[in-house]
Amino acid sequence: MRYLFAVLFVALVAGCASSSSQTPPLTVGHVDLDRYQGTWYELARLPMFFQRKCVQSEAHYQRKGDGRIAVTNRCRTLNGDWQEATGEAWPQVEDETDKLWVRFDNWASKLLPGLTKGDYWILYLDEGYKTALVGHPDRKYLWLLSRTPTVSTQIQTRLLAEAHKRGYDTGQLIWRLDDEAIEQPLP
Question: Which UniProt keywords are present, listed alphabetically (predicted)?
Fold first, then answer.
């Protein structure tokens, strides 16, 4: 029985490992993490299980004294409820700030800390640190981010072009809903 459990566990971990033979996407190079901190609104994302009920999402990043970044992700559901997850991010390689690890505080990260960290690659960042693309090197996750909940059509087009240039399937994006589309709680 232990052998069967071990085989299933190894198969699960191997299934989660990178299987893409594609070249990883281009990232931005150096990111000033002090300028990057603050609030980012999700404009769109590729579908992912843990955000399946989210219609509006935002991330709050704050530098910590040890150089890591405190992460608070908030998600609003269609019925107007907010869900929140906290964690931290840090560079995958020291002094390379465009490729980060991120780990959220939950039972899985406490049980299997080495397996619960995720890739957070900053693929595009405008000069003013107002819009960004963040993704996974296997191109299975992608977020279009902005300092504001909405952007112009011109900026949206630029973000889509940058994502497409890096090999992401932008036809599968889930877009942020406007406030009017979300149920408002009764007084």
Answer: Cell outer membrane, Lipid-binding, Lipoprotein, Membrane, Signal
Phi-psi region at 139: left, alpha or beta (left = phi > 0; alpha = psi -120 to 50): left
Residue-wise pLDDT tens digits, 122-139: 999 999 999 999 999 999
CA angle 163, 69, 13 (to 5 degrees): 65
pTM here?
Answer: 0.83
Which residue type does 107 have?
Answer: W
Q: How many Cβ atoms from other residues are within 10 Å of residue 3's Cβ? A: 7
Look at residues 140, 77, 134, 68 and name the one whose alpha carbon lies nearest to residue 105: 68
Q: Return d(Cα 35, Cα 129) in angstroms, integer.
A: 7
pLDDT digits (tens, 9 = 90+) for 28-62: 999 999 999 999 999 999 988 889 999 999 999 99
